[in-house]
Amino acid sequence: MLFSEVIGHTDYKTDLVQAIDHDRLSHALLLLTPEGAGGLPMAMALSQYLVCTNKQDGDACGICAACKKAAKLVHPDIHFSYPVVPKKSGDKPISADYGKEWREFISQHPYSNIYQWLQFIGAENKQGNITARECGEIIRTLGLKSYESEFKVMIIWRPEFLRKEGNRLLKVIEEPPQKTVFILVAEQSENILNTILSRTQLIRMPSLTHSNLSEALIQNESLDEKEAQRVAALADGDYNAALHIVKQDTANYMNRLRAWLNAILGRNPGLLSQWITSFVGAKVGREEHKQFLRYFIKQLEYALLIEFNRGHDLTILPEEEKFAKNLLKFANFFQIRDMIGYLEDACYHVERNVNVKILFHATSIQLRAAFRAESLPIE
User: Fold this and answer.
1) Residue of 186, 170, 106, 100 lying closest to 138 (CA atoms)
2) Which of 137, 151, 157 is nearest to 92 (CA)?
3) Which positions ≥6 away from 175 have C-beta within 8 Å?
4) pLDDT tens digits for 304-350?
5) Contact 117, 105 (CB under 8 A)
6) Residues 238 and 262 both lie in one domain
7) What's the structural domain count of the chain?
8) b/e per residue, 145-156, with b = 16+ CB within 10 A?
9) Which domain holds residue 166?
10) From CA 117, how far away is CA 109, in angstroms rounded?
């Protein structure tokens, strides 16, 4: 991947290129990025720039033999480590066991999250892991001479999945073989071993800006400017979420949201149970549940912007504006603030593979408590 193909983060690209060109690049980097902000694409672009034999002004050439191999994820001196699951009981898997699947997945979905990767390899409810055997494989691989390039690169995607076995990597991270570069790509620094954190140079990359997202959607998804801006606002800096929204029918989200709130505010408990069973029982995954909750959060934020007269330039659909204004009839600032907090907590738990049916029941009770007693039907 070229730096020019990575969305946004222009300053970070420039800093990394200058560090390489002036021989100041740390041998162990930790790219800490929010979900969908492009940590893995940045790591891939950095690794391709390192092995490129015909570097251009601030980017790899994209046409030399090394670039072509790097683009296909088959360069012999660029190695990947990532969470995997056993293919059968008793297995102690390593990343190489899923090499073919990894190349296919990342080539198509470089901004995807860990849940999508685990579903892609059929993990179902299994928890991914970077195993002790994988740590040994990393050490063995980096102990070999490079095949073609001056550099050897090890990209570890989601080091949060390194348990205490990750301490086996401390020596090789602290004192790697010459011309060896570690690039760790993470989203939650608090879940990384402190012993590893202390041995890396931390680079905090923020979420993508709305303008970055909308430009990428116009270029890559052929959206018109107004629709791209609306999707970018809903995605809130997450390109993976933006792609998910593009593929979904927003009207379906709105109808589902109206039905949920009316079930929460109604006097028939069976209606709420029926809605939850219907939604959770549908053939949609955890990503769909999370994006639906995020969609609700965004509608609540729209309501607040309208309430405080800052919504005059909002790029939203007419039905979303009507919905936001109707919310303000029976929920004030403090109630909406509480609801956003409940929904953010729900998103957090969805990401951690909680029982979704129980979660939506609990969140429904919290939302009901947040509303006024004299609630109106949601239209």
Assistant:
1) 170
2) 137
3) none
4) 888 887 655 667 778 888 888 888 888 888 999 999 999 999 998 98
5) yes
6) no
7) 3
8) ebeebebbbbbb
9) 3-204
10) 9
pLDDT for 259-297, tens place per residue?
A: 999 898 887 878 999 999 888 876 667 778 888 998 999
- Note whether 199 and 255 are same-domain residues: no
Q: Which residue has the tokens 């005059």?
A: 312
Strands 201-204 and 180-186, by their bridges, are unpaired
Structure tokens at 79: 């190695």
**Cα 284 to chain centroid, rounded:** 18
The DSSP call for residue 345 is: H
What are 212's two structure tokens? 């970055």
Partners of residue 150 on adjacent β-strands: none
Considering the domain boundaries, does residue 327 fall inside one? Answer: yes
- The span from the CA of 43 to the CA of 64, in Å, is 19
Report residue 223 CA to chain centroid gap: 22
Q: Which residue has the higher pLDDT, 127 or 160?
A: 160
List pLDDT tens digits, range 206-264: 999 999 999 999 999 999 998 898 899 888 899 998 998 888 767 788 888 999 998 98
Same domain, 193 and 253: no
